[in-house]
Amino acid sequence: MSSTLHRLSGRDGISVAFPASLRDAPELAVDDVCLAALAEPWPWPEWFRPRFLVEVSPLAPDRATVPQLGTHLIAEQIARGAHVAASDLWPVSSGEDGRRIISLVPVMDDTIVRLQYVSIRGGREVLITAEHSAANQKLSEAIFRDAVGSIHVTFDDAPPEPDASAMPALDPFASEGGSDFEDLSGVRGAQPYRSSGPPLSEEQIDAVRRGKLRRVERDALEAARLVDPRGRLTETGAAARRALDSPARTVTAEVVGDESAHVSRLEVLQGAKATAVLAGPPPGSRAGERTLDVIASRTSPIALARWLGLAPAWTVALRDDGEWTLPLDPAVLDARLTQAAAPPPPDASRGLRWMWEQPWQIATISGGTPARRLRVITTPRAGYFRLERDHASGRAALSPLPPEYYLRELLWFGGFDLSRS
Q1: 78-102, pLDDT tens digit by residue?
Q2: For the chain, which residues make up each domain, given as ranges?
Q3: Sequence-distant (≥ 6) Cβ neighbours of residue 57 within 8 angstroms
């Protein structure tokens, strides 16, 4: 891909840098600037067809600060059916800061990644959106990053006074450290995993797997549209049987937490086009029967993200010296894994103490091709952490896992080869 960038000027005093072929694409008037990537001839492979939008809007008292804009944008994405996976602070070279929000959207039989950057420039809200298939994450992200870094405005409006009653709650850990970041802890609960099918017994699931349905209760299978009133597998049921009986790729997630001894389990059995998702009650829920959903294989990452509870969270450093990974005494870590009240290391940093006292959910995600295993600790307010515990070598370590990087892991487990882009 050519890295030569050209400037696209909008009708309202804003300009953003895009590749020349996108600059020449037909424009559709939405708000102040709308750019659809429809240029012909297309300079890149057909599988890379991103869509970019640049919008400018006036500020209002309830949308007058970056935390307010970020909070509103997350709520809007959830209301539109997207799964919001990450939100982070994005300072750029001009010194202006904003929020970069990443959402997943199921479109037809694919997972679409929606990158959005929202900021205040010249007293107005500026929003850049890029949409692309998850397979093209790196390629589209490079163009998106260059576009955000090139924003230039000529207007200079007087911003309204923010409405104090409309300000989002602040993250307590960030506030103690002198930063006023919005509290993101409620986003996870606002986008729970929901199955479209009723709970099924293991006998019923096994009957679908074997295609032998005569001796099982079929009402729930009919409700799930897996069998017809005559007791025969529907098209969806046949797809479920193929995926259950001979999956091309299997991913398993198991989660256990401080607050429950129950092990939650998710199985994603991928076929060439259809995937069977066997979901136990999500982490933190009571034990119960599993559900069976049949989804497009390329939307598997969304099922993984929803069930595992991937959501925006501020990344908490565990060390004060700038190093990323924190080696730990294996006995100290093992004690915390088995008992929530176990104390942290005596020399623990403020960040380590903060995550240590949070309730933990420990997820083990395994499978894929080639087979891999990832262990992640999820906390309500401190975010996500990669857990490394090798009993053979005696190694024990924790590393912060920003939601963006957790998302990349789930895209890989969901079957996307990000190396292509």
Answers
A1: 999 999 999 999 875 556 689 999 9
A2: 5-168, 199-249+261-294, 309-421
A3: 31, 32, 124, 125, 127
Q: Is 259's pLDDT higher than 50? A: yes
Residues composing the chain: 421
Q: What is the value of pTM for the model shown?
A: 0.90
CB 204 within 8 A of CB 107: no
DSSP string, 79-148: HTT-EEEEEEE---TTS--EEEEEEEEEETTEEEEEEEEEEEETTEEEEEEEEEEGGGHHHHHHHHHHHH
297 φ, ψ (degrees, to nearest 5): -55, -35
CATH class (in words) of the domain with range 5-168: alpha beta
Closest CA to 30 of 5, 61, 54: 54
Strands (DSSP E) contained in 215-334 are 249-257, 260-270, 274-279, 290-296, 326-327
pLDDT digits 0-9 by tens, 28-77: 333 344 444 444 555 556 666 677 778 888 999 999 999 999 999 999 99
Q: Looking at this protein, which amino acid is placed at residue 171?
A: D
With beta carbons less than 8 A apart as the criterion, state whether 251 and 270 touch: yes
